[in-house]
Each structure stands twice: as structure tokens, then as C-alpha cells.
Design brief:
- The chain is an alpha+beta fold and 78 residues long.
- Helices cover 49% and strands 13% of the residues.
- It has a two-stranded antiparallel sheet with strand order 1-4. The protein has a two-stranded antiparallel ribbon with strand order 2-3.
- Helix 2 crosses helix 3.
Length: 78
């Protein structure tokens, strides 16, 4: 039996990079997604993982696949 543990609970993401490519501010993105600018900042910095609903809104906004935006940490096998 293989035992696994997560290295980290949160995801990394490319939101800041994508936002900068589109030349939009955190405030503009937040307004488009109906969340606060602080929420966008927390997601970009890895302090907050978005809900499934918000994740879907983000993927639709950027017109990108889930794995093009969010990067789960690799699982470490014991």
C-alpha cells in the first residue's frame, strides 16, 4: 500500500501573470468576478484557495483550462 501526504494544502496559480498580460488591475478583475480586490490579492499570493464557483468564474474569465491557471502541489509518496 502506498502512503501519500500533501506537501502543501494550497495551490499556486498564474492569475497575476494572466491579469498582467491582459493589463487589468486586481480591482478590475475583482469587479468582473463579483469579489473584493482583497480576495484577488489573497488568491494570487496563495493565502486563499477560491471556491469551486469562483474557480469556474476565473477559468471562464481568462478562457483558460483549470490546469493552465491553477497548479496543485505534487504529492509526496512515502
Amino acid at each position: 500500500m502506498v502512503k501519500c501526504i500533501f506537501i502543501k494544502n494550497s495551490m499556486n496559480n498564474n492569475i497575476k501573470k494572466l491579469r498582467n498580460e491582459m493589463k487589468i488591475s486586481q480591482k478590475d478583475l475583482a469587479e468582473s468576478l463579483s469579489v473584493s480586490r482583497q480576495t484577488i490579492n489573497a488568491i494570487e499570493t496563495g493565502k486563499f484557495d477560491p471556491s469551486l464557483t469562483l474557480t469556474i468564474k476565473i477559468t471562464r474569465f481568462f478562457n483558460k483550462g483549470l490546469e493552465e491557471i491553477f497548479i496543485m502541489e505534487k504529492i509526496k509518496k512515502l
